[in-house]
Amino acid sequence: MKTERTVAILPPAVADQIAAGEVVERPASVVKELVENAFDAGATSVEVAVTEGGRATIRVSDDGTGMARDDATLAVERHATSKIRLASDLVGVSSFGFRGEALPAIGSVSRLEIETATGDGAGTRVRVAGGALEGVSDAARRRGTSVTVDALFYNTPARQKFLRGARSEWRAITDVITSMALARPDVRITVTHDGREAFALPPAASLRERVAALWGVDAADALVSVDDVSGPVRVSGLVQRPADVGLSGRRLLLTVNGRAVRDTGIVRAAEAAYRSTIPAGMRPSLLLLVTLPAGDVDVNVHPAKAEVRLRDRWNTERAVERAVRRALGTEESAGAFGFAQRAFAAPAFESGATMDVGALRSAPLPESPLFESMDGGRDDVQAVRPAEDVHVPPLMQLRNTWLLFERDDALVLIDQHSAHERVLYEQFMHTLEGGAAPSQRLLFPMTLHLAPAEAEAFEENRELFARLGFEVEGFGGHTLLVNSVPMPHPRFDAERCLRDTLATLSGDRFGSGLAKHERLAATVACKAAVKAGDVLAPAEMRALYVALARTTLPAHDVHGRSTIVQVSWDELERRFGRR
Q1: Which of 566, 561, 242 is nearest to 421 (CA)?
Q2: Between these two residues, 544 and 3, which has the higher pLDDT value?
Q3: Percent of the chain having pLDDT more than 90?
Q4: Are 319 and 364 in the same domain?
Q5: CATH number at residue 474
Q6: In sequence order, what are the beta bridge partners of 440?
Q7: 224 and 190 together in one domain
Q8: How far is residue 376's CA from residue 539's CA, in Å, rounded to a whole number?
């Protein structure tokens, strides 16, 4: 009996078209590969022209090194590359492209023409259609390379019919070009679509300058600078101020050693830095450039080089989280009006504010009624360093809500409730993570009658409440007997704080995405902080100023609102017609 043959070797043309599908998904993929080749060639200027969203024509021209005739002819052959020679070269490869797949893959599913010149003698023109070399001839061209792709997927109708409309494909191309423009702000990039100029980006000295060219100066000024080194990992870039998160569409860019990639782990690490500064579930804009030793990155894990594998992922992610957290701890991340380019030319807190809450543990207590009950001879986190270690300017209270002071370049306001909330939150977090806090025993126990949901919320957090200093015992049913309470400040209303906290926890209305102890610390801090309308004595204002200066994130409360807002003198003069 004759057995029917079921396994066969595919013809080379079919195999090439299948392989091309891994690299060339749509017109945007072609643009990405060709622009990356231009970057690898050392281009300082790249011009992109597309028609019908890239469905008809894509042309990418650069002023890079160009290719000699022999190299240009080999470049359209499968597996030809100038960037690696051995498999070991893949470790630490620094070029964007390296597989030798882009040009032949594109040429196998389109009509491809390459014009290139090195600047020495005549240039070269190479034409390919459907993977077949059609001709090689001379070309008059200045130094650099132009690649024209016509009729993408003309020979693969099944692929062509899955392309989206011209508008959708154009949007994908703009997304790709935007990412690459941000990754390489030093390169001039010009883009036209159907004959109309869409981008004209001159070389930029910084990422912020490139952001301003793409989205406007206001968008650039709304971002906070990140620049931090942790071991071999450097993290730089721009991130969104917590107070602005959710007010506009999210923008996201991540590069690893200059390569724009997708990496949910690194993005999650950056978002984790926003904990206790924005409501759970909100997603900040992030433009992050991660640099680490080339040998610690494997870029050969995705056909389109859109993903990387990290040798030490845990430390890299922690470095990203730490860098973003430190950026959010600067005064630059607070709200501002009328500041050009960088929102904070000078810090809101004068020299001496090291912003390390852990350093507060052994510090003596300033003389202030606001914090007087925290002392009692104890050596705990609530104490703050003496006011003389932080320069405290003359402070004024406005409408019993804001503290006001002036600087050489700005008028500065501090929201007293938000500021105290931030101070208490970091104190409570230290207490919850480091052990029980001292408490004050009540002369007469306090009885609380709770709703079932509130009683359940208490039971879920009983141990954490005890660490904060609430000594509570059951009194039958949903009734609690409170024997001792913490006393973070003399105005603290323990009963109201406990009731409001349990009501909030039972309603799941506060930071459901936070860990349990973070959620409790944030809730209690919000309920325990001094309120708008509370009159503060001068010594209390000074103590609050010093305590806020010593927190890790002084510019934000636990809801993501600004604790500090600065108004430049230039803006005030402009408002009054003096400029």
Answers
A1: 561
A2: 544
A3: 36
A4: no
A5: 3.30.1370.100
A6: 485
A7: no
A8: 18
Is residue 60 a contact partner of residue 35, using CB atoms and an 8 Å limit? yes
User: CA–CA separation, 239 vs 225, rounded Å?
Assistant: 7
Considering the domain architecture, whether residues 244 and 196 belong to the same structural domain is answered as no
**CA–CA separation, 209 and 341 (whole Å):** 9
User: Based on the domain organization, do 417 and 297 belong to the same domain?
Assistant: no
Amino acid at 470: F
What single-letter amino acid sits at 335?
A: G
Instruction: Please tell me whether residue 148 adopts helix, strand or coil conformation.
Output: strand
Q: Which of 146, 147, 144 is nearest to 65 (CA)?
A: 144
Decide if 135 contacts 70 (C-beta within 8 A).
no
For 2, the token pair is: 């004759």
Q: What CATH number did the domain enclosing 312 receive?
A: 3.30.230.10
Paired residues of 85 in beta bridges? none
Do 193 and 213 share a domain, yes or no?
no
d(CA 533, CA 416): 9
Instruction: Pinpoint the alpha helices (H) of 196-305.
Output: 207-215, 217-221, 264-272
End-to-end CA distance of the chain: 98
Q: Are residues 46 and 194 in the same domain?
A: yes
Q: In the 3-class helix/strand/coil scheme, how is 11-34 assigned residue by residue?
A: CHHHHHHHHHHHHCCCHHHHHHHH
Say if residues 231 and 292 touch (Cβ distance below 8 Å).
no
The first and second tokens of residue 389, run together, are 């270690």
d(CA 109, CA 128): 10
Element containing residue 571 per DSSP (H, E): helix 569-575
Q: 554: burial class by Cβ within 10 Å (0-12, 13-18, 19+)?
A: buried
Domain that holds residue 129: 12-201
Name the more confident of 477 and 108.
108
* Lowest mean pLDDT segment, chosen from 81-95, 129-143, 219-233, 545-559: 81-95
pLDDT of 359-392, one tens digit each? Answer: 322 233 333 434 433 333 333 333 334 444 678 8
**What residues contact 30, with CB distance under 8 A and at least 6 apart?**
24, 54, 58, 106, 110, 149, 152
In tens, the pLDDT along 68-96 reads 888 888 888 876 565 544 444 445 555 55
Q: Which of 426, 425, 392, 395 is nearest to 413 (CA)?
A: 395
Structural domain ending residue among the three candidates 176, 201, 226? 201
> Are 530 and 491 contacting, i.e. CB atoms less than 8 angstroms apart?
yes
DSSP 243: G
C-alpha–C-alpha distance, residues 256 and 302, integer Å: 14
Q: What is the DSSP letter of 63?
A: -
Q: pTM for the full model?
A: 0.72
**Joined tokens for residue 349:** 């807190």
With 50 as the cut, is the pLDDT of residue 99 above it? no
Tokens of 185: 């702000």
- Please check whether residues 218 and 169 belong to one and the same domain: no
User: Is 491 in a helix, a strand, or coil?
Assistant: coil
Q: Do 35 and 57 have their domain in common? A: yes
